[in-house]
Amino acid sequence: MSIFHFQLIAKELSITIRQVESTVELLDGGGTVPFISRYRKEVTGELDEVQITAIRDRIEQLRELDKRREAVLKSISEQGKLTPELQTAIDDAKTMSELEDIYLPYKPKRRTKATIAREKGLEPLALFLMEQNKEDLMKVAKLYVSLEKMVASPEEALAGARDIVAEMINEDKDARAKIRKLFMDTAIVSSRVMTGKEIEAQKFKDYFDWKEPIKNIPSHRLLALRRGEKEGFLLLDIQPETETAFEILSAQFVLNRTEAAEHVKVAMEDAYKRLMAPSIETDVRMGTKDVADDEAIKVFAENLKQLLLTSPMGQKNVLSIDPGFRTGCKVVVLDRQGKLLHNDVIYPEMGEAKKLLAEQTILANCAKYDIEAIAIGNGTAGRETEEFVRKLGLPESITIVMVNESGASVYSASPLAREEFPDYDVTVRGAVSIGRRLMDPLAELVKIDPKAIGVGQYQHDVDQNKLKTSLDDVVISAVNAVGVEVNTASKQLLTYVSGLGPQLAENIVKFRDENGPFKTRDSLRKVARMGDKAYEQCAGFLRIRDAIDPLDGSSVHPEAYQIVEIMAKDQNCSVSDLMKKEELRKGIDIKKYVTEKFGLPTLQDIVKELSKPGRDPREKFETFSFTTGINKMQDLRVGMKLPGIVTNVTNFGAFVDIGVHQDGLVHVSQLSDTFVSDPKTAVKVAQKVVVTVTELDIDRKRIALTMKDQTKGGMTTTGEKSRSGAGGARKETKKEPEIQGSLQDQLMALRNKFKS
């Protein structure tokens, strides 16, 4: 049935059948989504990653449907009940629910009321009821009274017959389709608080008495209601109007105004209430949850993508601080490759003497290791630590940056961190992670479970297998879009390169450690278990800086090197010259180089890559700082205008970090002066924005923000104190003069060194 699947997918995605067929063939052959989208454009008709992923997921779904179809056909055939008409209906089923409705009457089931009635020989009476003719019903029912079969009276016989009729109605596929449509079109989602749980269920207070049409309910609200139900705080129902359901079923099954018809009506109502409604509500719950899951996963994936592609500062000597009050601030020094050189602990909030020691430590490390940037985690004591560092009088050349440390503690306690830093505790590992995130967010974040990064929406409530697949896709896409320097990349980063995986990534690192840096891409073939297919998939995404062949540092795939060499020869220059000189590239007529394998799309990509080989698609790094003096919620006032960084985007708005250890919410209605239907079109994770405080609820830790123009009236800005004025006058210490003088002399000398 593959051709029908190709036709269906082509129609759904508005592409050609040939595009679907070619893409599926590449996927089945072991091709990865990044490889196919970048290096097989001629084969797929230039489909992008989103389209290729959609084809992959849909063909897998349809194949699962086929497996179930085969199982259903086998089961019915073994029962000896498969007819040509039934087989056609099964073959034509387009969805799993449609297939299951067809199979329901033949599905082996536990003993039901109808099963027991059939055992008593009452099925002919049930069929008689369904005819709804005018015969004397009691007279007919008496024929089924049998002490041997435990049918004591005509009334008992009729009751058993109604049980059979109810099951027949419930198992009618057309009836189920109509009622399922009724549910989806008109059902109301209602919730109420569990009796006695009012106090402990306060976080679900909005849903203590809630009603909303199922066709209108947004995914995040449905997931919130389901979470409340799962945690035992809410009672949740999804039901259409019962009378409307009765009218639909009556039109199909109650065909006359006879005594038998009245019994059918009773059976019909029983069928709906006892069998059909609960069953279809379960189906609808599953179906709507699937939709809600997909939407939540989509939001999470988009946020993760933006976070992974956050601008890197690049290779710098970094002093990284993981802030803390009582336990002190963990300080580490990293070289430009992210290698740990030194670590310390300082206590700037534990008295004047320790504060002076902390100042000395920071200044000494900055001088000794030629520090170019300071990364400060944004967790507990983050703003206080930032303020302390900014008052040290460091030269302007040292950039001070607050870094989102979500998930750093997860990494620091992981087996991976223990393997990387076996001789250091979790505090040092956490500080290292913060510093490396500043240098290259992508390379560091791939070491952490995406769910621990905190950019999702009900991520623990959605289908975890779907979520993992989607997030893995995002990480793979981001890593391959940026490209990976094979001689410096970690095992974790290499794992996500197209065609590799954990084992090959480990083998590459091991080979690199034993034989030194790779000089050419082709030498990757010497890595254990690196077959032709794996090499084909990964080679274009691995970079070798300063390689023998300049193309090895670009995204040009080795399979296309020969074409570039011919281009260079035709321009009477070397490949290196072709990459350096624009006038030479302008002389290339790419149409001359079109072959059966390399068409214009690939050739255009090659020439574009030659102009900026190995270019990083991420935006240029920009410094950012929060407003000085605004460190906690109590410092906020309604009307304040503040700089912030978007930390999460949901369907109902965006969360923004304004430097007070509690993100504020910009509701979707407050994202712009113009109408915004989808927050993802207005802002993205890690984007720098300016917001205005509109509401404060310190007790519930809620901050309402707006990005609308608030310049008319009110407090328009807090202003940010200048760097030179941020320090203010220092208080005189009451510690012993000799200690104070000694430290201050050292601090003065360090400051003078910086000035010189």
Describe the SSE topology.
Blueprint: H1 2-13, H2 17-28, H3 33-39, H4 41-44, H5 49-78, H6 84-92, H7 96-103, H8 113-119, H9 123-131, H10 137-142, H11 154-170, H12 173-186, E1 188-193, E2 209-213, H13 219-230, E3 234-239, H14 242-253, H15 259-308, E4 318-322, E5 329-334, E6 340-346, H16 352-368, E7 373-377, H17 382-390, E8 399-403, H18 408-412, H19 415-420, H20 426-439, H21 441-445, H22 464-482, E9 484-485, H23 491-495, H24 502-515, H25 532-538, E10 542-543, H26 561-570, H27 575-580, H28 582-586, H29 600-611, E11 641-650, E12 653-657, E13 664-667, E14 688-697, E15 702-706, H30 737-755
Parallel strand pairs: 4-7, 7-8, 9-10, 13-15
Antiparallel strand pairs: 1-2, 1-3, 4-5, 5-6, 11-12, 11-14, 12-13, 14-15
Helix pairs in contact: 1-2, 1-5, 2-5, 8-11, 9-11, 9-15, 11-15, 12-14, 12-15, 13-15, 14-15, 15-22, 16-30
Terminal Cα span: 78 Å
Per CATH, the class of the largest domain reads Mainly Alpha
- The low-pLDDT segments are 713-741
Strand content: 5-15%
| Domain unit count | 5
CATH superfamily of the largest domain: Tex N-terminal region-like
Structural class comes to alpha/beta
Task: Characterize the largest beta sheet: strand count, sense, and whether it forms a barrel.
Answer: 5 strands, mixed
**Widest sheet: strand ordering:** 6-5-4-7-8
Number of helical stretches of at least 4 residues: 30
Could you tell me the mean pLDDT?
A: 90
Give the % helix. Answer: 40-55%
> What is the molecular shape?
globular
Radius of gyration: 34 Å
Instruction: Give me the CATH fold name of the largest domain.
Output: Tex N-terminal region-like
Number of strands: 15
